[in-house]
Amino acid sequence: MKDDPSSLVTRHSSLPAGGRWVAVCRLDDDSVYALGNHDPFSRANVLSRGIVGDLKGELVVASPVLKQHFSLVSGQCLEDPSVRVPVFPARLDGDMVCVEACTQ
Fold this sequence. Notes:
Blueprint lengths: L8 E9 L2 E8 L4 E5 L1 E2 L4 E2 L5 E5 L2 E5 L6 E3 L15 E2 L1 E4 L2 E4 L5
Antiparallel strand pairs: 1-2, 2-3, 3-9, 4-5, 6-7, 7-8, 10-11
């Protein structure tokens, strides 16, 4: 993690998009990332409650249950590359976060 991982994220939450729950992470530079909220290891919808950070140059969210790290860009699990969560295009529109609900 970077020296001050708390400075990476301003807020994160989950919202319904295209029939599934999506974890949304907004970083302090106003970049926005969206990925499936379902943690495939714990089988719980918890990624929106994970810790966001930088692990070896990769922006990640760590599952609050079993602590696996998922790339905010690709959704790939860093500990098990065969596992991935879906990612969704996301952007800011003023103060509103827009997530494209696509089928993956």
